[in-house]
């Protein structure tokens, strides 16, 4: 049957087609597929030859470059032969896909040697993120990389630049993660010590003349340890996306003779401020703008120095290469020495200076439903040195929490939750605890879905007199508002009155400074089970972490690919 339409109706239908198909933007992103093979290879990132964990032969691994709304598929083959593996997508909230967060023991079973596992998730926000191993202490063996998510075409950011570059800062040990883990678990305790080198984009320089180095192991002419060179065109502006994946070190990063304007932190726009050196802690990302406005006839040093620890690790060095100078041409100056390692004031000042960009503020809830104060202490448990939260040191279970909670396997972990606080009135944060003994547990915090939670990270003295360390804490599955920092002991009656509830920055990783406190606020609105832990590898290994569960009943069926360990050994796994 043929229907003839009047001219007015035809015009109306044409208008509808124009509105529906032209003015309404398509929101579906692209699918970006990666095939990665993880394996050990001999590498010399600081001129010293040792085994490193690589992705497709590279460390750092390949960068993931995507647009907001894209779906990322990573087909990961574990060719480590004798080790399991898991990869965490650091800063990606995994909304609707908590099983692909990549946290062994929390959201999935590890990937066995020879197996291939497929991660699939959406990058729902623009910004600078990271990925890294989340099994044992593999991250510090070189298994990490960067994620860069840009805005959709046609959208703009509140700053402009000519070129976009990513840089990862890391520290590097010559002894293996097995040796380190064995020392941390032994009686007497054997500390991992300070790193041998600082790497900038996977490159450093160890002193091969160090006494005791076996012949042939260290070679300064190896091209693998040629300093990283960032080539710039004079008068152009560069966005440097700087991420830290150190296993221990807090760093100060600077570029000789160049100011840096901080514009982004952990995927959120910052009210711009200028620094000469950027303090950055493990798990953090920043975007800074630099202008190549210095004498173009020479190159300049970029330097990364360890702070907050009295470290003997040499500064990591790279070269800011002004085109057309040769990228290997050394600058004519001495590298900048960096700030004093124990000067906490400028580090605290930078933390306080980071505020949300006007026009991009996500207003926090003005009140919270629950407050959890977490006292960070160093302890002994049955002779072992551990880190604890409110006198409880964390252990991962053999069956991942996500599976246990969804399948009601509650016998697989302790059903008693950790404490919400500590003896605030009587505990002296400036002294070694009178009783340093603590307990271990794999109990978790159960959060009421869609409630607002405040976390107060309270630092204290270690088991060494007059010593308090910096701890960068990372929350999986969420961003949080950083509502306050302070010195000394947090006062739960007075300090909340001074919270910044107007323009706090949102982050996923934040430091708690020596003998200080940091206050966070977040919404428990992402169904799943999420780790919250110190991002220093050895500290998390020693128990410095907790786990949050929220809205687990809202999840559908779990993929069987995450199963196969602990009490899920009998579950089907393709």
From TrEMBL:
Q: Which reaction does it catalyse?
A: 4 L-ascorbate + O2 = 4 monodehydro-L-ascorbate radical + 2 H2O
**Cell compartments where the protein resides:** Secreted
Q: Which residues form the Plastocyanin-like domain?
A: 38-150, 166-324, 434-551
Identify which top EC class this enzyme belongs to. Answer: oxidoreductase
Keyword presence, S-adenosyl-L-methionine: no
Keywords associated with the record: Copper, Disulfide bond, Glycoprotein, Metal-binding, Oxidoreductase, Repeat, Secreted
Q: Which Gene3D superfamilies match?
A: Cupredoxins - blue copper proteins
What superkingdom does the record give?
A: Eukaryota
* Database matches in InterPro entries: Cu-oxidase-like_N, Cu-oxidase_2nd, Cu-oxidase_C, Cu-oxidase_fam, Cu_oxidase_CS, Cu_oxidase_Cu_BS, Cupredoxin, CuRO_3_AAO
Q: Which cofactor does it need?
A: Cu cation
GO MF, one example: metal ion binding
Which NCBIfam families does the entry mention? ascorbase (TIGR03388)
- Subunit field text: Dimer.
Q: What is this protein called?
A: L-ascorbate oxidase
Its source organism is Forsythia ovata
